[in-house]
């Protein structure tokens, strides 16, 4: 049975990743901050042919990350999916051009939090589960990034914290790929596209089902040839 660990698994894209991997018979380690309130996730465990293990994990709390790694007890993981994330301007943003571009109005404490959760935490999580990935068959680490992290594709000012946190995640992923490729481990950023979740808001282009189906197809197709490169949910390569 292939296995995956997913962060931010209780809602949005993370919940749909759990549903789809469970439906395909995977062992899913679903991590979220408040399992007691994760009713949709718990319900997902009762469907599909896979196995669901739910763990408490705030990705910004290293001792909680280590506790989950301890619970896995060196067991194999095929895929680590760093999905949890936060944004500045929920439900709209650079896609809808509603951001205030004036840096003097920006919330710099929020920017620091964006870097902590979107950039630093996924790289710490990658380190915590690296030994599990190395004994897994597929050896894949996927950092859910964003098209808004592409410097080449930047289309306007604003969302400074979110965009830079994902651009920095891309850079960290690229750096890690140089270290991990000789160890046989694939690591990539994948952008899920603008998707109708709490973060993406109701006007987004993609349903969670389509976005997750697309990202899963990209994950399934990854080989060491693809490591250290950025991918969009439709399988095209994203420019940095
Ligand atoms: N939706 C889009 O249009 C879009 C586009 C590009 C990229 N993305 C990326 O896709 C990923 C998922 O986004 P989404 O749209 O599903 O967002 P969402 O609906 O807001 O869900 C975010 C998830 O992350 C979790 N989370 C936030 N902070 C966390 C922390 N410190 N520790 C653990 N979990 C935490 C949330 O848990 P709680 O319920 O506990 O808050 C929730 O499960 C993010 O990395 C996001 O940047 C989304």
What does this 3D model show about the protein?
The chain has 240 residues and is of the alpha/beta class. It has a single domain, classed as Rossmann fold. The protein is 38% helix and 14% strand. The chain contains seven helices and seven strands. The protein has helices spanning 12-23, 39-45, 62-72, 108-128, 130-134, 160-180, 208-221; strands at residues 3-7, 27-32, 51-56, 79-82, 140-144, 186-191, 231-232. A seven-stranded parallel beta sheet has the order 3-2-1-4-5-6-7, with helices on both faces. β2, α2 and β3 form a beta-alpha-beta unit. α1 (12-23) runs parallel beside α2, α1 crosses α7 and α4 (108-128) runs parallel beside α6. The protein is globular, with a radius of gyration of 17 Å. The chain starts with a strand and ends in an 8-residue tail after the last strand. The structure holds NADP nicotinamide-adenine-dinucleotide phosphate. NADP nicotinamide-adenine-dinucleotide phosphate binds at residues 7-8, 10-14, 32-34, 58-60, 83-87, 117, 144, 146, 191-192, 194-195, 197-200, 204.
How is this fold's topology laid out?
Elements: E1 3-7, H1 12-23, E2 27-32, H2 39-45, E3 51-56, H3 62-72, E4 79-82, H4 108-128, H5 130-134, E5 140-144, H6 160-180, E6 186-191, H7 208-221, E7 231-232
Helix pairs in contact: 1-2, 1-7, 3-4, 4-6
The chain binds NADP nicotinamide-adenine-dinucleotide phosphate.
């Amino acid at each position: 049975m292939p296995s995956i660990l997913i962060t931010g698994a209780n809602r949005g894209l993370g919940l749909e990743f759990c549903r789809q991997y469970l439906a395909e018979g995977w062992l899913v380690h679903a991590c979220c901050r408040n399992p007691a309130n994760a009713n949709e996730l718990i319900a997902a465990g009762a469907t599909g042919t896979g196995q669901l293990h739910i763990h408490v994990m705030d990705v910004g709390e290293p001792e909680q990350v280590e506790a989950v790694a301890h619970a896995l007890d060196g067991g194999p993981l095929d895929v680590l999916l760093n999905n949890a994330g936060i944004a500045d301007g929920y439900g709209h943003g650079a896609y809808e051009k509603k951001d205030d571009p004036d840096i003097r109005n920006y919330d710099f404490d929020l920017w620091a939090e964006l870097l902590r959760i979107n950039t630093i935490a996924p790289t710490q999580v990658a380190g915590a589960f690296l030994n599990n990935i190395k004994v897994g068959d597929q050896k894949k680490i996927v950092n859910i990034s964003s098209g808004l992290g592409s410097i080449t594709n930047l289309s306007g000012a604003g969302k400074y914290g979110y965009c830079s946190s994902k651009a920095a995640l891309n850079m960290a992923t690229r750096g890690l790929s140089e270290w991990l490729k000789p160890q046989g481990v694939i690591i990539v950023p994948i952008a899920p596209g603008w998707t109708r979740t709490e973060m993406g808001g109701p006007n987004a282009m993609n349903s969670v089902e389509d976005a997750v189906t697309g990202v899963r197809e990209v994950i399934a197709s990854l080989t060491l040839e693809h490591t250290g490169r950025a991918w969009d949910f439709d399988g095209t390569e994203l420019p940095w």
